[in-house]
Amino acid sequence: MNIAQRDKITRRPASQEAPLSRGAFQVVGTVTIWIWVGFNALLLIWVAVASLKDSTAIFSQSKAFSLPSAPQWANYANAWVDSSIGRAFFNTLGVVVIASVVVVAISAPAAYALSRFSTRAASPMTSLFAIGMGIPLQATVIPIFVGFQGVGLVNSLTGLTLVYIAAQTPFTVFLLTGFFRSLPFELEEAAAIDGASVLRSFREIMLPLAKPGLITALTLNIVFLWNETALVLYLVQDDTKFTLGRSLLNLATVATYTSNWGAMFAGCVIVVAPVLLTYILLGRRITEGMTLGAAK
Amino acid sequence: MSTITISGVTRRYPGAKTAAVDNLDLDIADGEFLVLVGPSGCGKTTSLRMLAGLEGIDDGTIHIGDRDVTRLAPSKRDVAMVFQNYVLYPHLTVAENIGFHLMIRKTPKAEIQRLVKDAAALLDITEHLDRRPAKLSGGQRQRVAMGRAIVRQPQVFLMDEPLSNLDAKLRAQTRVQISTLQRRLGVTAVYVTHDQVEAMTMGDRVAVMDGGVLQQCDTPRALYERPANVFVAGFIGSPQMNLIGAKVDGNGASNGTLTVPLSAAQRSNLSSGEVTLGLRPGSLTVTDHGPVRAEVEVVEETGADAYVYCTADLGDGPTHLVVRCPSRAFPAKGERIGLAVTDPDIHVFDGATGRRVEH
Q1: How many whole angstroms separate alpha carbon B114 and alpha carbon B126?
Q2: Structural domains in chain A, sorted by start
Q3: Which pTM was predicted?
Q4: What are the CA-CA distances from residue B224 to residues A211, B197, B300, B352 (Å)?
Q5: CA-to-CA distance for B216 and A158, rounded, in angstroms?
Q6: Is the Cβ pair A195, B148 closer than 8 Å?
Q7: Complex-level ipTM
Q8: What's the burial of B63, exposed, middle or buried (CB within 10 Å: 0-12/13-18/19+)?
Q9: What are B13-36's pLDDT values in tens digits?
Q10: Contact A190 B91 (CB under 8 A)
């Protein structure tokens, strides 16, 4: 819903309208947001255009903001093959998809239980997950590294996947708990009367109804993990196991020596494009899912 | 099909001072249609939910047939329930909604289809079987909820105000349909409503509850003719029975110009010198020379009759009375009228305990 639509819905009779300041605030807010959106869009477009130029054109004062005279598709080939962005792409795809699916698969039953069972432990456990959300990932890197060394999970994509699952579970449980709370309790009663066990009513009644929430959780996890760089930086040293974030960092370092900036921007586009596409396809559902969970 | 025996069942909610349901005893016969009725918060829905297993029981036992189900999960009780808001599964089609229990029971697919079709035909929702509940009207959803219950052939039907979301006309129709269906299937049914007309027209017996306590459980006729206490007297019957406080003296019970004779048996059964007199609107007649003087405030015409709402001055302040009149001969608003008690069958209730005092 954009601001203009929202304004239409919440419009009150003139007599109740807030004084002028609210209108002015809204105008300033709208303008600020559009400037911000425009700035970001411009950056993205500039990166996409730069990815098709050669380095001299990127840094030339006269051509920096113009379209390329001849698109340099070789930049993409360079990034994908020579700088191993291609391998990193598939590494990332594997890690992110597995981690996101496992996170949601673990979090959904946990969230359901926390939202439904009024046992004495449920409330402190929900708080525990909230606390888990508050711990910065970076603070856990050294302990994880030391621990993983002992079990041979350093420099391994399996290890990375495990850390991702652990890191994303608190947030996902928290998100889904709110979502399950918003689903009518009576449906489970009806299912119970119909003879369904708790597990069955979760699987066949609640889970299908929670689909918007699950999609939201899945997408947010995919997007976050897709861009994650800090943990890979510490936990993975072998460049055949790099994920996109780490690979891009590599590409930037290389570009400072080789001046192949076009390839670096091509790498950027390869990293950003899937995330952007996900948002374009699922953006509406994501916002719906988030507000639905938060509403009740 | 089964009897239901509820003995001494009590439910206390944590933090509440009084029990939501207090020491409830009810014996429901096989195939009987029992209606639980009372104002909101009287414990009728809680009682039904305890019977379904959706609510814990603090004290007492519930038997369905010979089986003690007190601690049994809802899924193990073999009861079907129609909820007030129907609670259909929104992501399943009508057919899947109706067949959900059968699917869980691992009934063969062909058999499920047959049973669902039969139930749908019985309820006239065959053409909606492939639709989702969101596409149905309120009345259709209500019938799907009924279908979900009858397809199972359960021991007991439980219904929690299933008609309260329907409009008046549809409610009257569905009322008849549910009664007919229940009698045809012969399944013991417990039905909760706050509407006393629904209770009186549908139930073989009606259990009136108030404040978590069962007030009286009897046939609709007996409830109307011999209410056990002031609460039942006021609750059953529409318009409400006139309840008038009176003092016992040598002539009987009187309040100002209104005097009602008391029998010797009644006098000996009283615990105090005060009684509450119960007069149905039809027990009073408008006559010029009636001993009670009153002023007409509102006249409600129903077609067959007219109900005259008036204020009488009996002696100790104004008393509001309702009088039934023939539809063509009723006084006008604002008119001063005389009222006489013409029906000898006046209900007398003990002033202290509220209990009925028999002749």
Answers
A1: 12
A2: 74-293 (1.10.3720.10)
A3: 0.79
A4: 53, 12, 22, 22
A5: 70
A6: no
A7: 0.85
A8: middle
A9: 988 889 999 999 999 999 999 999
A10: no
